[in-house]
Amino acid sequence: MKLTRERLAGITLGRQFPTIRGRGRAAVRELFDRVGPIQSQVPRAPFLTAAARLPGVSYATVRDGFVDGDLIKTTNLRGTVHTSRPAPFGALDAVSRQARAVDLRRVLGLTDAGLTVPDLITEIEAFCTGNWRPRAELTEQIFGWLADRGASVRPGASSSQAGNLIWGHSGLLRRPRDDHWERRIDTLHRTAIDVVGPELAPRSAEQAMIELVRVHLSAYGPATRRDIAWWAGSALTPVDRALASMTDELVRHPVSNGEDLIDLAELPQRRGSDPGLRLLPEFDGLLLGYAPANRDRFIDREHLDRIWTRANGMFLPMILLDGRIVGGWRTMPGRPSADTVIELRPFTAGSGLTAERASEQITAAATALDLTVTDVRILPPG
């Protein structure tokens, strides 16, 4: 069955903005179960994800989810920081380990020293078992361990790149130095199964990819095989193998000028409707759930560069209105500095964006981030 552009966007919006009762911890757990891992280079992104999809959820509710382990932060999909529920961790870890093995061998000089990637991972996880380890302490320990065994960073690779591969091991959890999860950079690391339990142990790579296909399509479907592979940080071959083994679970929608769109035959329950106006975080899944060539499901392609800096991969916070991303927004310090100003900038003059229409979402964002908003400004289109 062919899908119109409007129908396709509506199906995905129903999954990304599900109908969830309540605004307590159970609601937050259900939300993150349904929308999948959230890219979280910007620490506040999970809080704003919750605000946009559960308006009225409090800062303390989301923060306590992190503190108590309902939500975990890891370095997995595409080697980037993500927030997720514990359940998919084993699959995320397994796929990420496979994808990063080549870089670990090449950059850290493992092969020349007679070391294997499992040797390195065993040492990293042993050091990070029992305590949260500061990032600098972890990298110093592992660089010393490598040097003692004759391994050295390859010429042309920076110590920063090598360090990122060490502390960015997908089997570690990450957290800030205190409980300000919404604004602190993560600098502490600990072995995941040491904190949450052995159920987080990595799966086989084949089973893990099947699990991730289900996670992705449940949150972002219908999607192409390239969307799934990009999101998972995988080559196409493992994705194609997973899809071939899941034929009975899937349906395909032909597209006249591209790859078939793939979806789950059994659709998620309690899907939502058009969410209206929502203030989305940096790196929101409405864009980052898809390969770069397919990021126009919710935004006009000529507007992508307004919020996506391709040189460094950064994304600005976005405004969703009537099913389309129509602008960007940001928070600014007010006077006094404890106050916050929110600026909204539409892409075009005809977007329909007004302060009145945005008022409920501004309140939701302020509640989720524990902000005092004293002024809202609609800037000229740009």
Walk me through the structure:
With 382 residues, the protein is α+β, with helices and mostly antiparallel strands. It has helices at residues 5-16, 25-35, 45-53, 59-67, 89-108, 117-127, 135-148, 159-167, 192-195, 205-220, 225-232, 236-245, 285-288, 304-307, 355-369; strands at residues 38-39, 72-75, 81-84, 133-134, 172-175, 188-191, 250-253, 261-264, 278-280, 308-309, 314-315, 318-321, 324-333, 339-346, 372-378. It has two domains: 1-272, no CATH class; 278-378, no CATH class. The chain is built from 15 helices and 15 strands. Strand 10 and strand 11 (314-315) form a beta hairpin. Helix 3 (45-53) packs across helix 15, helix 6 (117-127) packs across helix 7 and helix 11 crosses helix 12 (236-245). The relative contact order is 0.14. The mean pLDDT is 95. Keywords: DNA-binding. This is Winged helix DNA-binding domain-containing protein. InterPro entries: AlkZ-like.
Secondary-structure map:
Layout: H1 5-16, H2 25-35, E1 38-39, H3 45-53, H4 59-67, E2 72-75, E3 81-84, H5 89-108, H6 117-127, E4 133-134, H7 135-148, H8 159-167, E5 172-175, E6 188-191, H9 192-195, H10 205-220, H11 225-232, H12 236-245, E7 250-253, E8 261-264, E9 278-280, H13 285-288, H14 304-307, E10 308-309, E11 314-315, E12 318-321, E13 324-333, E14 339-346, H15 355-369, E15 372-378
Parallel strand pairs: 14-15
Antiparallel strand pairs: 1-3, 2-3, 4-6, 5-6, 7-8, 9-12, 10-11, 12-13, 13-14
Helix pairs in contact: 3-15, 5-8, 5-10, 6-7, 10-12, 11-12
